[in-house]
Amino acid sequence: MVRSVTCLLVACVISGCGGGSEPRVETFPVSGSLSVDGKPFGPALLSLDSLDGSLPSASAKVSTDGKFALSTYEPDDGAAAGEFKVSLLMDPMAEPFRDIPPLKPASATISKPSEGQGFVLDLTLETSGKVSGSVPSGGAEVVPEAPSVVGLPSAGGI
Q1: Which of 136, 141, 138, 63 is nearest to 104 (CA)?
Q2: Domain that residue 145 falls in
Q3: Is the peptide bond before 147 cis (omega within 30 degrees of 0)?
Q4: Does 109 map to a domain?
Q5: Sorting pLDDT into bands at 50, 70 and 90, what band is 156?
Q6: Residue 29 near residue 78, CB atoms below 8 Å
Q7: Mean pLDDT of the 32-42 span
Q8: What's the confidence (pLDDT) of residue 97?
Q9: Measured between alpha carbons, how far is residue 109 from residues 47, 52, 136 in Å?
Q10: 140 pLDDT more than 90
Q11: Structural domain count of the chain
């Protein structure tokens, strides 16, 4: 009995029972800065979601000086190359706590950097100046419409 249970466990481990994982999309180191109305903005939670849904989302904790490094699968592993909707949420764990103002829609484009280099994504968002409806708990989401923000490959890597 013990032998058959052991064989069953070994077979499960070898065959990967528990489900397979989807193949990972290649990611590139992405760091940058976030500003709102021309001023560094943070703390906040930044999310980049694929405009067409074909790429994994990337996210980052934005520091009080507006700096961030994106993560997709593992901490600071970056993001896939593509076009993304930019969403900004308050960070409930941050000190000092900061509300997210209503923002104009924004998107970002991440390009594959040169070999051995990272990608710098400097996001400049603008407040909309108005609130329509209620702002959901956790902040306001930016919807995927103009203006676009395009990052630049960094000169010396990250």
Answers
A1: 141
A2: 25-128+139-153
A3: yes
A4: yes
A5: very low
A6: yes
A7: 96
A8: 83
A9: 13, 13, 26
A10: no
A11: 1
Q: Decide if 1 is inside a domain.
A: no
- The 3 state secondary structure assigned to 6-71 is HHHHHHHHHHCCCCCCCCCCCCECEEEEEEECCEECCCEEEEEEECCCCCCCEEEEECCCCEEECE
Main-chain phi, psi angles of 22, to 5 degrees: -70, 150
Average pLDDT, the chain: 77
Chain Cα centroid distance, residue 108:
11
**Does residue 111 lie in a domain region?**
yes
Please report, for the domain that includes residue 42, its CATH number.
2.60.40.1120
Residue 6's pLDDT band (boundaries 50, 70, 90)?
A: very low
For the record, the structure tokens of 123 come out as: 């996001």
Mean of pLDDT values over 13-42: 79
CB 79 within 8 A of CB 39: no
Average confidence (pLDDT) over 75-92? 95
13 assigned to some structural domain: no
| Rounded CA separation 30/79 (Å) | 6
